[in-house]
Specification:
Layout: H1 5-16, H2 25-38, H3 42-55, H4 62-70, H5 92-100, H6 117-124
């Protein structure tokens, strides 16, 4: 089930509170159109709204909004975006690190179980390619 217009409006209002968000109704309608095309369920929309609210304080532009969403979810319209996100916390390197830890991206920040101390310390160390396996 797709998000309702009320749910889309609430998510848009959250995005519009970002520092440097462009004034005027044109920007809001473009954000609404992007969200309506890109997000497939109310649950994914709420996840995205909360993620943006809690982790992105400045307006990054429509392309980056799509890249942030695509860093964790598949877009309903099938458009993956022009590349990886450049926003801290959502970059390809950070997503890969989370995936190596066996945690879905942003799951830990949004209430997932913490890694055991040993696993976390082992994953943060660089791999020494000169040592035999």
């Amino acid at each position: 089930m797709k998000p309702t217009s009320r749910q889309l409006h609430r998510a848009c209002e959250t995005i519009c509170t970002m520092k440097y968000f462009p004034p005027g109704p044109g920007a809001r309608s473009e954000v609404m159109a992007l969200l309506a095309a890109m997000v497939d369920t109310p649950e994914n929309l709420e996840w995205f709204r909360v993620t943006l609210r809690d982790h992105v304080s400045e307006w990054p532009g429509l392309g980056e909004i799509r890249a942030i969403y695509c860093s964790s979810k598949r877009p309903a319209d099938g458009i993956e975006g022009a590349g990886y996100s450049t926003t801290p916390g959502f970059t390809a390197e950070e997503i890969a690190r989370e995936n190596l830890r066996g945690i879905a991206p942003f799951e830990r920040r949004l209430g997932g179980k913490p890694l055991r101390k040993l696993e976390a310390s082992m994953l943060d160390k660089p791999i020494d390619d000169d040592k035999p396996n």
